[in-house]
Amino acid sequence: MKxxxxxxxxxxxxxxxxxxxSDGELKQQHEVLLSTLxxxxxxxxxxxxxxxxxxxxxxxxxxxLLSRFES
Length: 71
Prior knowledge:
By secondary structure, the chain is mostly helical. The protein is built from one helix and no strands. It has one helix spanning 3-70. It is rod-shaped, with a radius of gyration of 30 Å. The termini are far apart.
């Protein structure tokens, strides 16, 4: 095998290692982003539920106040 062929083979091997490492890093980043997105969705859902609860509570308070003035 010629020196140039050995060099090309070594370069391909190094490139493959970089690609595999890069692929692994991207997969890890993807997992982190997905778990972060899930947490953000859960937080949003919790905040939305709390907001709805507070709105209903305020509506009841307003209805109660209005009924006092109407009586």
